[in-house]
Amino acid sequence: MGLFTRKRDTAIAEASSRAYAAEASVEILQEGMADLELMLEDQGWERLVGGADREFSRAGLTRAAKVARVLAIQHPLIKRGLALRHSYVWGQGVEIAARADGNNGAQDVNAVITAFMDDPGNKAALTGAQAREELERALGTDGNVCLACFTNPRTGFVQVRSILFDEITDVICNPDDRDDPWFYRRQWVQETIDPATAYRTTTQMVAYYPAVGYRPRSRYKTIDGHPVVWDAPMIHGSVNRLDGWKFGIGDAYAAITWARLYRDFLIDWATLVKALSQFAWRGSRKGSKAQRAREALTRRPTTPAPAANPNNVGATVLLDEGQNLEAIPKSGATIDSESGRPLAAMVAAALGVPVTMLLADPGTTGNRATAETLDRPTSMEMNGRRSFWTSLLDRVHEHVIREAVRAPQGPLKGSLPRDPVTGRESLVLAQDTDATVEITWPAIDDVDMDTLVKAIVAADGTGKLPPEETVKLLLRALGVKDIDELLEEFFDDDGHWVDPLASAGQAAVDAFRRGQDPAALVGAGGEDDPEPPPEDNEA
């Protein structure tokens, strides 16, 4: 028994020793991990990711937007980069038209869309050229656009107004689906003026706006004591948003740091050049007359400078023997401004534009073709932004058509059946009318017109394209604006296509087969026809 007891005690002692060693190793590993974390913090990574593990705070987004707005006005690179993005996306315009134009027994959806787009208020807020520029710049600085769709409950007419991003303080989403927004909380300061005294008063306002498409059967009148504006649902579009975020962030955010560095580089470069230009010549003289030579060189000419030479440059100097005057060598000074080009390239990369176009300079190794050519990745990025606008405008147009059906005096007829599972409304127009609104963007890259027209003619030769589609493609290729008004001339009163190249006789036969008056179609007996000669009438 004594032998077994001694062996057991020895084993326990060895196990205890191993346990102590393991605990010491764990402590060393923990200290090592702590050191690594401190290294991350020392390198700045902890500060970088500390506030962005889930989402930037609302106050942080507001500060970033304010800085970007200032730089969009003050910094040349940010200003030009955002202007380039707007030019690529909106510079060539966009064609918007509904397929259903009242022909072939369908309802005139295109008239509803046209009336919405031509409204002066909607032009100022969404559909006009200036409004599109402002909204695209808002995506560059704020990363968010918020459109409130004020709807007339009687007629269904929609007027869109842009809401400042700073006023949208929160997004209330479906508790079971964070990608399903329900309400937008708006907080703003309303200013009123007394017409009698011109006294201004400000009031803090808070209201909730439902998201477009969210219309439950039971609708709250207030949330937390604040009104819910059901007649003004909101459409929110955001860019550069990560998964799970409520808001986006501007395109210029990633370029702010590098834009400042490039500005600082140019300031330092200009300071160096100015310092080097302070002393252009170096003179030397032996003996006691060196001080007088120094004073003579530093003294400005006393005679007035000629009008064409205000700085008195290009003068001639006469020196005695033993005197020397030579230009200061600049071989040791680095004054190459092209050294900062990589910083400008980082700004261009952040904004998604080529550095040659951002600087309006192809560089020492580039050429004019390089500066004017849009590379494929940039072209794809701009097409992606166009797709964003297409999706947002589709939501606007769908709301316009839906409210035109819902309103008792609306111009369209149809139904809005509700999905039993999601509770969402769907749009069904009467008379089997197509509710599709086509949004057509011109090509970003320049395509040779001769090649494009030949391709359209070849496609038309297959006989698979409807003639009206061929005409649309040709008119767009030729750059014709407002092609919808021009296309109306190619249809008769019943919406049937009339080929402008067909003979009048064939057109008359086709009209007769449809039960129409052939004479009215070809113009016989019309107001513009000449009267028959008198002898024919008498005969």
UniProtKB/TrEMBL annotation:
<feature type="region of interest" description="Disordered">
    <location>
        <begin position="290"/>
        <end position="312"/>
    </location>
</feature>
<protein>
    <recommendedName>
        <fullName>Phage portal protein</fullName>
    </recommendedName>
</protein>
<feature type="compositionally biased region" description="Low complexity">
    <location>
        <begin position="299"/>
        <end position="312"/>
    </location>
</feature>
<feature type="region of interest" description="Disordered">
    <location>
        <begin position="513"/>
        <end position="539"/>
    </location>
</feature>
<feature type="compositionally biased region" description="Acidic residues">
    <location>
        <begin position="526"/>
        <end position="539"/>
    </location>
</feature>
